[in-house]
Amino acid sequence: MEKSKKIKTKDKILLTAIKQYNEVGVQGVTSRHIAGEIGISHGNLDYHYKTKEDLILAIHEKMREEMSGIYENQNTIISSIENFHLLLIQFEEFQYRYRFFNLDVLEITRSFPEVSKLIQSTLELRKSQTELLFERLIEENFIASNYAEEAERIQHIIRMVISFWLSQREVLITYNFTEKGEMVKSIWAIINPYLTEKGKEEKEKVIAKYGYTQIESNNE
């Protein structure tokens, strides 16, 4: 029987921090809370991450790497509509996996200047990657010509929806659209008016195939 790999202390700290930040927020968790749950000394934790900013920087690097993988690992065999839909599903799952970051992003950027700089550079990278996604949708004749006039604004709105989806769920608690999959549906609602007939047909086929949520997550 193969032995399970032992998680390094540094990685264990990272995973425990994400878990606790998700539960109570960044400001509600200290290094002593994290060390206590892992069962290590406060000094041991400080050896790996001297400050809270160091820890959040490491978490953001992990997030950036995972998100870059989502963008880069596209299937060149399937249509750009199918790739885009699968990306949206993964984006929504990503929001829940690191929900503290999206809920506390304003506080994080104000409190931790180095994290703020990294966030800004990441946003510029995501902007370029989003533009490439839409270029492929246009090349495959899924997006109509009327899209060109509003391209930058549409992409900006989509990035705002993704970035602040969980925040609006916390604030607009009496509104609809709170279930998983609603973020994906909302983004398609933004894009629908700009789809060609070919694009609409392909979108319906893809949604019939996958639905709006990640299958693995439904078994939680």
Written account of the structure:
The chain is mostly helical. It folds into two domains: 1-50, Arc Repressor Mutant, subunit A (Orthogonal Bundle); 57-219, Tetracycline Repressor, domain 2 (Orthogonal Bundle). It is built from eleven helices and no strands. The chain has helices at residues 9-24, 31-38, 42-48, 52-72, 80-97, 99-103, 105-111, 113-139, 151-171, 182-191, 197-210. It starts with 8 loop residues before the first helix and ends in a 10-residue tail after the last helix. 20% of the residues are buried.
Which outline best applies? Answer: elongated
Q: Count of DSSP helices?
A: 11
The gyration radius over C-alpha positions equals: 20 Å
Q: How far is it from the N-terminal to the C-terminal residue, by CA?
A: 26 Å
| Share of residues in helices | over 70%
Main sheet attributes: strand count, strand direction, barrel closure: none
* Global structural class: mainly alpha
Number of domains: 2
What is the string of SSEs from the N terminus onward?
HHHHHHHHHHH
Q: Can you say what the CATH homologous superfamily of the largest domain is?
A: Tetracycline Repressor, domain 2
CATH architecture of the largest domain: Orthogonal Bundle
CATH-defined fold name of the largest domain = Tetracycline Repressor, domain 2
CATH class type of the largest domain: Mainly Alpha
Strand content: under 5%
Runs with pLDDT <50, length 5+?
Answer: 216-220
Q: List how many beta strands DSSP finds.
A: 0
Mean pLDDT: 88
